Amino acid sequence: MSSPLFFLFLIFFLSIVSAVKLPLSPFSHSDHPLPKDPYLSLRRLADSSIARAYKLKHGTSVKPDEDALSSASTASAATVVKSPLSAKSYGGYSVSLSFGTPSQTIPFVFDTGSSLVWFPCTSRYLCSGCGFSGLDPTRIPRFIPKNSSSTKIIGCQNPKCKFLYGANLKCRGCDPNTRNCTVACPPYILQYGLGSTAGILVSETLDFPDLTVPNFVVGCSIISTRQPAGIAGFGRGLESLPSQMKLKRFSHCLVSRRYDDTNVTTDLDLDTGSGHNSGSKTPGLSYTPFRKNPKVSNAAFLEYYYLNLRRIYVGKKPVKIPYKFLVPGTNGNGGSIVDSGSTFTFMERPVFSLVAEQFAAQLSNYTRDKDVEKVTGLGPCFNIAGKGDVTIPELIFVFKGGAKMELPLSNFFTFVGSTDTVCLTVVSDKTVNPSGGTGPAIILGSFQQQNYLVEYDLENDRFGFAKKRCSP
């Protein structure tokens, strides 16, 4: 099966377990370290965070067909499934999922900012720009369809094809009056910041130790750029893992970045809901309601998890952020989202400038290190050599309902190169647009979520969090 699929696509491209626990780790292949130069490492993470933000702010997708939801797969057996998450050095978190009959286990990047689940597919999978330090692109783990008896190509008239292409999908070569057309669902092309992928949709069995999800829609990617692993989409789209599994909630605790590329993992919990009261709260968590997604023509905005961020404090000083950046307008511009696929939190330039100015004012006793700022892409950076005890003001996000995310220092400042210089790990683009830019103005990234228990309560449409030591 792999050879025909590959050539078909390459031609196109060139022209009741209630809960499942999955190990979650910071993502980057263990044989794919970032450069040992700490300045270049941070520069790569800063650049990728900005590129990711650009995609989230401008990205478009086909509006999903709500009528197709009724045909989503139904999971059988358990209530909570756990899967390990682990940290990887290029900025993401990795989770392994098993597909096929017999099952094949593949690592994926855990991503709440997109919806499609896809894996590198067939023995002929090509990934350009994947020759990272220490990584052999020919050894990228991939799914082999011919080795699975449950792989089925999704047809164009299959309602699940509309997960990606919407109700207005036209199937060329198909008689609209019959359901017997053998034309396949059109190939997809997806952009992820600095990378991209393309392939075809297939139906497969998703396996957990005590749970089986049949007829799961997954992307079989044939060719990619700068994507050495698949993506596990946890966004709001119909094709996402939470939607297809009909999850009531999912939660994670992201380990510190110092465990990048190690065997240290924590659990990603997937809750199908049969084992808890619908309105129950997890003890110790602070909750804030998700904000309704803006109803705009850019369907990608429907996939995001919008937060009701009300205020930002630097130390005891409130940052006076204009309302238009905190709340999405009728055009979809403004507002805040949470995204596990972004490393550093992104703020639109007018917001970032206000926050950075507060840090600069409160740390005026220290010298700005402009050279480090230029090399790393981060800032402001301060030289603290010979200063003894250094006091850094807190960075606090306050959400609707009073929930406060009071970030630990290591979640928003980092040492660079030595103990002499520290930099703010929040990024922005170079564009200054006082009237506001396109899409979300603030993107809460994974670096700022280290050592937090975070819960996406889908049933009650709320976001919960609490500080917690996530490592063993």
TrEMBL record:
<dbReference type="InterPro" id="IPR032861">
    <property type="entry name" value="TAXi_N"/>
</dbReference>
<feature type="compositionally biased region" description="Polar residues">
    <location>
        <begin position="274"/>
        <end position="285"/>
    </location>
</feature>
<dbReference type="GO" id="GO:0008233">
    <property type="term" value="F:peptidase activity"/>
</dbReference>
<feature type="signal peptide">
    <location>
        <begin position="1"/>
        <end position="19"/>
    </location>
</feature>
<dbReference type="InterPro" id="IPR001461">
    <property type="entry name" value="Aspartic_peptidase_A1"/>
</dbReference>
<keyword id="KW-0064">Aspartyl protease</keyword>
<dbReference type="InterPro" id="IPR021109">
    <property type="entry name" value="Peptidase_aspartic_dom_sf"/>
</dbReference>
<keyword id="KW-0378">Hydrolase</keyword>
<protein>
    <submittedName>
        <fullName>Probable aspartyl protease At4g16563</fullName>
    </submittedName>
</protein>
<dbReference type="Pfam" id="PF14541">
    <property type="entry name" value="TAXi_C"/>
</dbReference>
<feature type="domain" description="Peptidase A1">
    <location>
        <begin position="93"/>
        <end position="466"/>
    </location>
</feature>
<dbReference type="InterPro" id="IPR034161">
    <property type="entry name" value="Pepsin-like_plant"/>
</dbReference>
<keyword id="KW-0645">Protease</keyword>
<keyword id="KW-0325">Glycoprotein</keyword>
<dbReference type="GO" id="GO:0006508">
    <property type="term" value="P:proteolysis"/>
</dbReference>
<keyword id="KW-0732">Signal</keyword>
<dbReference type="Pfam" id="PF14543">
    <property type="entry name" value="TAXi_N"/>
</dbReference>
<dbReference type="InterPro" id="IPR033121">
    <property type="entry name" value="PEPTIDASE_A1"/>
</dbReference>
<feature type="region of interest" description="Disordered">
    <location>
        <begin position="267"/>
        <end position="287"/>
    </location>
</feature>
<dbReference type="InterPro" id="IPR032799">
    <property type="entry name" value="TAXi_C"/>
</dbReference>
<comment type="similarity">
    <text>Belongs to the peptidase A1 family.</text>
</comment>
<dbReference type="InterPro" id="IPR001969">
    <property type="entry name" value="Aspartic_peptidase_AS"/>
</dbReference>
<dbReference type="InterPro" id="IPR051708">
    <property type="entry name" value="Plant_Aspart_Prot_A1"/>
</dbReference>
